[in-house]
Amino acid sequence: MTPSDPPVVLARGLSREHAPGRGVMGVDLDLEPGHCLGLLGPNGSGKTTLTSLLLGLLKADRGELKVLGANLSRGGRPPLARLGAVLDTDSHWEDLSGLANARFTAGARGLSGRDLEENLGRLFEEAGLGPQAGDRVKAYSFGMRRKLSLIQALVHRPELLVLDEPTAGVDAGFMVRLSGLIRERSGRGLATWIATNDPDWLAGAADRVAFLDRGRIKARGTLEELIAGVSPLLEVRLTLEGFPDLTPPDLAGLRSWAQKGDTLTVLLDRDRGLVPRLVEAVVLAGGGIRSLEVAGPTLKDAFLLATGRALEKPLEKVGGEG
Amino acid sequence: MRPANLFQVELASALATPRKAGLRLGLSFLLGAPFILAQMPVRVRVVGLILLALFHSFFGAAVGRVRVRALGRETKLALLPLPGWLILLDRLLAGVVVDLIQTGPLLLLLVAVHGSPGLGPALPSLAWLFCGTLLVLNLLGQGLGRLAKSNAEVHLGGALGVGLVAFLSGLIPTPGPLAGLLKPVWGLSPVRGLAEALEGALLGPAPSGGVWPVVFLAGLAVLYLWRALER
Asked: Which residue intervals of chain B are DSSP H helices?
């Protein structure tokens, strides 16, 4: 991203109220190429409303919204050929195969020919749906349908990928692959928008996060900024072999040192590079290490600090893959 | 199967399994056969079969639209870069094919069993009136489905709508003074036109042929070829 690249999504004072106090109010957000913005909030916080505004499915009451250069605040539609979306309400033609469904949506985006077939084949394999590509969708589990939706959203290599609760009902292995895929997209200069209430998964996928609560953005920034806002320190707990009497090493970033028996508790600045240097210093001082734990604030803690509310555990969808 | 556009997808989905296709055809035949095989006045035969077509096309299109919206398919289509008119056209064309499969054989059987002699030249006119009526009824059904907010609303609206269309088309006996008032409306109703043409085909005189039905049918055929052959 260069300073001249226009944002993929730009929202200023964006509002859409279904009822007084319900919806989204005065939202300011930016998403630049090469970044993934995670919109984190509990159920009913306005994530789906904001995502629907972005996709042109709802019209804003007030404010400015630009998506991929199209001005949606003046009644325009987003350039749908350049974006892909997976919504939690997505559906398929149940009596057709997964492959036929994917071919249709790709065809509607103007894709055809050998490239399309190869791309679809690769995506079905990567999603673990290769053997079931020709099966009717009615035989698919909930998680398999979500994967099919994602294939449909990715097949045209969209500049903007919009995901609404992407981890609901999918297996853990796929969640890991999905976060990898999103990071890979960011590396290629593509943008991703994620609306979720799953902070643990989001922390591995997004580099920018906005906290949404009761329709308003409560905080936004990079993942590191938001977490550092809770506490700038990491707690490292070492269990030592025997009971060596260690003295604190001369290590920049070391904030506190407390040894009690075989347990050493150290507070360091939030710089992950400091942990190996601490371990090296302890070993050089003659301390054998049996175990090491690093604990620090999480995105969940940052959300609690910003909103005063805890995020509830994401609900598991019935019929999800084990 | 490689459906390449919404018309092909809708059609492939509607007739995806022998069970689905068999149910559509079999149920229509069970409901419509008595109007062809049993002894009854011609007017009753015609009105019975047209009401059956009205339920399949108007009511079916309305309920179907609400159902796919509840499934989230409307949103899915809204996120594809397809123009709204093309989505509507594909749905209409697919809906008419399904209705033709369900009710066309019954009308063919009716004309074959009870038709007056020398009906040949009137067949294009009958075919156009039938296809045109199904198109209009599907369009009305899509409109009702778009307006209805729930399953309950569309069922109530659909039942009332079938009654209203039948009344405004003169299929339901109408008292003399009211009939006089409704006559201009009857002239606009394709359902009324189809009913009169069928009665003419059964009792004589058969509806006149002319060139326009052939032109309209040819136009419809071109539309179908375009959507069916797209790859």
From this structure: 6-14, 18-37, 42-54, 60-71, 73-78, 84-114, 123-147, 151-168, 176-188, 190-203, 212-229
